[in-house]
Amino acid sequence: MLDRPVSELSKPCKRLPDQRWQIYPQKPEFAQNLAVLTNISPIVSQLLINRSMETPEQVQAFLNPESLVLPSPLEDFPDLAISLELLQNAIASQTKIAICGDYDADGMTSTALLLRSLRTLGAQVDYAIPSRMHEGYGINKRIVEEFHSEGVGLILTVDNGISAFEPVARARELGLAVIITDHHDIPQKLPPANAILNPKLIAESSPYRGVAGVGVAYILAVSLAQQLGETKGLIQPMLALFTLGTIADLAPLTGVNRRWVKRGLQHLPKSHLAGVQALIQVGGVQARGEGAEGAGGAGEKIPNSKSLKPEDIGFRLGPRINAIGRIGNPQTVIELLTTDDMGVALELAMQCEQVNASRQEMCQQIEQEAIAYVETEFVASLQEDRVLIVVQPNWHHGVIGIVASRLVERYGVPVFIGTYEDEKHIRGSARSIPEFHVFEALEYCYDLLGKFGGHKAAGGFSLPAENLQVLRSRLVEFANQCLEPQHLKPLLKIDAEVNLNHINQQLYQQLNTLHPCGMDNPDPVFWTPNVQVVEQKIVGKGHIKLTIAQTVNNQEYKIKAIAWRWGDYFRLPPRVDVAYKLRENYFNGNTTIELELIGVRLPIQLQQFFVSPPTPSITTFEYNQRQYTCGFYKNGIEAELRIKNTEGKVLAMQPGNMIGLLGTNRQNAKEVDISQPQYDSIIQAALRALSVKS
To answer: What is the CA radius of gyration of the chain?
Structure first.
């Protein structure tokens, strides 16, 4: 019949994403009871249960963060009082204050926040940010010496400093006072600062525990303004910068972060900060508002105050800020966020736009080079090594962290990526999977490294180039101690199953009660089994735009979807299970709900068939009043489904292939798109027949 593998004649689609799907256990009765007690929908109730909220009190505190009773920051931060005293004295005596910031979005928004607030409160204040390319992260002795030579009396670090023992010790030797504001992990030996504000040093039960660097700066600035009785006109601009920095830094959106970010997102569209307005304008961000019950009569809708969503910052505003820190001059962002001149702000925002476009091109090029290198050198050993170390010359250090994240997404293993600073030195970034602790891995290799730091999910490091091979071996050793083979697939956590007929504006509005979503409160992820891919095409830089359909109660429901950066998986098979988030799409004044695909797999039934064909694996069935024979046959290392009609014509397909073969023998067989309805329908009928027989 057909005697050569389909793959020799057809053009198989690329493999599907190799993911681990973890679907939360559903608790319908519990969810229904909680929904009744809290006056929310059962679907939202189930989502909250998935997020470890199981009592009416927990639900109320989450859905209405303004109901939280917050302790005074002075109670929770032991060194806040001395910090305020030092700043008040410096303002009163006009002692020069210098801020040492950082070049990421958190550090730059923190720097801008404290510059604006301290200047408004009458301080003499300036700032410095170390060079990403030449100095790396954090305050250093050069900056300390420079501050001293300029007559600075008080140094204020933001988003750095907790590990800077020697630079801080040098500052104290020179007679400078030092306040450290930071949120990174606590080292074994704290620097000898006059005061340290770090949420990792306060009680784990504190609502302030999860704030980022900009959150610490916000608490300090608000407390100082309140102590001086000068809060008028200060709080809203600081809240805008807090919101930008918190979301861009991927801080957890729980506790006070959730409360303040929710306020900030509503305030941002009407912010008086010229830089924020310029970023919104250049980034093409549109504020959105839902109708609210008005006072004008029962059921009458009035426009609600329009709000941004975290993805507006995460995907539009944040990258334009971060791009400057990665490959540009951070001074651009500081000036943007501190100017009151709209003309200057627009000019600076356009610079951010141009740098971000360059950053995108650079990322794409390095990602392609990295993938080509991995596929040639390492892909065969990934399951054995359980970690990926990629080092090449001439890559820009400012963007390799982004590429590392994309390689983790692609290969499902921890990634350490680096580039040569010169012939003898390498600097790199690391990104992780849930079961692998980056900082512990770096500590395991401490004797091979220069500077290093980070936390569980990410880190940075440098090393002598001569140590690279030993570092590779050591990291493989560490990875094999903590990772099992089943960990080496990207983990996808899924909240609940939803049929396409239930996806509408009403469901989307119910989900709005969970916002703002982000770290520790992720966007809800749903899945729908066995949908049909009816249309698909590549758009933009390797995205798949598609339409999927599902038949429910003999009625077909269709919906549009987008799969970002999935060009490698084009074309998708005709039948798949899909996992997705819901998104609103605004076009020509119309608002529709679409899917953002984040997962796809062969339907469970189909997976089982191809992995373990049923016995018997050959049967007959009737379709459209015609008789057919179908069965599974070994073809190379994979099973192949073949369907034969009474005239001897055979349709053959392999799992994951959009292209099948149709003909009486392999030589004259023609390629056919099995996603077309006439082929897909007969394939489904064959699978049902085999299922009944097994």
So the answer is: 29
Lowest-confidence pick of 77-86, 107-116, 611-620? 611-620
DSSP E strand boundaries for 499-625: 526-539, 543-552, 555-563, 575-587, 590-601, 618-623
Phi, then psi, of 611 in degrees rounded to 5: -75, -40
Distance CA 196, CA 71 (A): 19
Task: Give residue 12's pLDDT band: very low, low, confident or very high (50, 70, 90).
Answer: very low
What number of other Cβ atoms are within 10 A of residue 527's Cβ? 21
pTM over 0.90: no
CB count, 10 Å around CB of 612? Answer: 12
Look up residue 504 and give its two tokens.
Answer: 């509408």
Please state, in angstroms and rounded to a whole number, the distance separating the CA atoms of residues 503 and 322.
35
β-pair type (415-422, 388-392): parallel
Q: Distance between CA atoms of 417 and 404, rounded to whole angstroms?
A: 6
Buried b (16+ CB within 10 A) or exposed e, 154-177: bbbbbbbbbbbeebbbbbbeeebb
The three-state secondary structure class of 592 is strand
Burial class (CB in 10 A: 0-12, 13-18, 19+), 446: exposed
Q: Retrieve residue 252's tokens.
A: 């957890």
- 348-378 b/e with 16+ CB inside 10 Å = b? bbebbbebbeebeebbbebbeebbeebeeeb
Query: Whole-angstrom Cα distance, residue 584 to residue 601?
Result: 24
Structure letter (DSSP) for residue 485: G
DSSP string, 205-262: T-TTTT--HHHHHHHHHHHHHHHHT--TTTHHHHHHHHHHHHHHTT-B-SHHHHHHHH
Out of 3.40.50.300, 3.90.1640.30, 3.30.70.20, 3.30.530.20, the CATH code matching 73-291+301-350 is 3.90.1640.30
What is the rounded distance in angstroms from the CA atom of residue 37 to the CA atom of residue 31?
10
| H/E element, 88 | helix 80-93
Q: Give the three-class secondary structure for 631.
A: strand
Cβ(658)–Cβ(575) below 8 Å: no
| Chain mean position to CA 501 | 28
Give the span between the Cα atoms of 213 and 220, in whole angstroms.
11
Strands (E), 588-658: 590-601, 618-623, 626-635, 638-645, 650-653
Q: Distance (Å, rounded) from C-alpha 14 to C-alpha 324?
A: 35
Structural domain boundaries of the chain? Answer: 6-13+606-693, 20-25+492-601, 73-291+301-350, 378-480
Query: pLDDT tens digit string along 14-50?
Result: 467 878 889 998 899 999 999 999 999 899 999 999 9
> Looking up tokens 């929710």, which residue turns up?
262
Under DSSP, the state recorded for 392 is E
Cα–Cα nearest to 488, from 371, 578, 379, 609: 379
Three-state DSSP class for residue 91: helix
- Torsion angles phi and psi, residue 687, rounded to 5: -65, -40
Q: Which CATH architecture has domain 20-25+492-601?
A: Beta Barrel (2.40)
Is the pLDDT at 447 greater than 80? The verdict is: yes
**H or E stretch covering 311:** helix 310-312
